[in-house]
Amino acid sequence: KELPSKLGNVHTLYLENLPNLKELPSELCNVHTLTLWDLSNLKELPSELGNVHTLKLYNLPNLKELPSELGNVHILTLKNLQNLKKLPSELGNVHTLTLWDLQNIKELPSELGNVHTLKLYNLPNIKELPSELGNVHTLYLWNLPNLKKIPSELGNVHTIRLRYLQNIKELPLEFKNIKNFFNYDNIPFKQ
């Protein structure tokens, strides 16, 4: 039910399938890289986790919100957080952000345009992207089935990878200027 407090001296920590763990000690803030996977009874995260360099959160079914301090994390991956409905705007301060299988996220904060590398995978309820994402250096858009249009401002990114965008019928002409452009679906440009 509890982790020993001396874990804070570890460089890399991987916690998986601990059904009795209900809370994380704040001492984990001293860990450089932390992965939390299948912690079914974890309902909240300590704000001190914002001091972790690399944080990966996978399959945390009872987590309903993220502390705003996670915006201080350098590399953040959020995958399959079934009850998460909103992303804090502070995540725009993260250097590399991966959002994967977040079924209940319907909107992305415009502040995510400040992220250096943004990877969006399998976000079925995202219908539109903020134009501010055009400020991102590297952008991955994979399997966004309800996305119908991509803002022309995204033509400002340095690198973009597009895949499984079923409802995107054409791309803005601005995308022709992207230095590293990967269009795996061969979506045509606007005429």
Compile the SSE list and pairings.
Elements (H helix, E strand, L loop, with lengths): L11 E5 L16 E5 L16 E5 L16 E5 L16 E5 L16 E5 L16 E5 L16 E5 L16 E4 L8
Parallel strand pairs: 1-2, 2-3, 3-4, 4-5, 5-6, 6-7, 7-8, 8-9
Descriptive account of the structure:
This protein has 191 residues and is an all-beta fold. Helices cover 0% and strands 23% of the residues. The protein contains no helices and 9 strands. It has a 9-stranded parallel beta sheet with strand order 1-2-3-4-5-6-7-8-9, with no helix packed on it. The chain is elongated, with a radius of gyration of 18 Å. The termini are far apart. 26% of the residues are buried. The model has no long low-confidence stretch (mean pLDDT 93).
Q: What are the defining features of this structure?
A:
nine-stranded parallel β-sheet; mainly beta; 191 residues; single chain
Structural class: mainly beta
Shape label:
elongated
Number of helical segments? 0
The profile of the biggest β sheet is: 9 strands, parallel
User: What share of the residues does DSSP label as strand, in percent?
Assistant: 15-25%
Q: What ranges have pLDDT less than 50 throughout 5 or more consecutive residues? A: none
Could you state the order of secondary-structure elements as H and E? EEEEEEEEE
Rg from C-alpha positions?
18 Å
Helix content: under 10%
| Whole-number mean pLDDT | 93
What distance lies between the first and last C-alpha atoms, to the nearest angstrom? 60 Å
List the strand order in the largest sheet.
Answer: 1-2-3-4-5-6-7-8-9
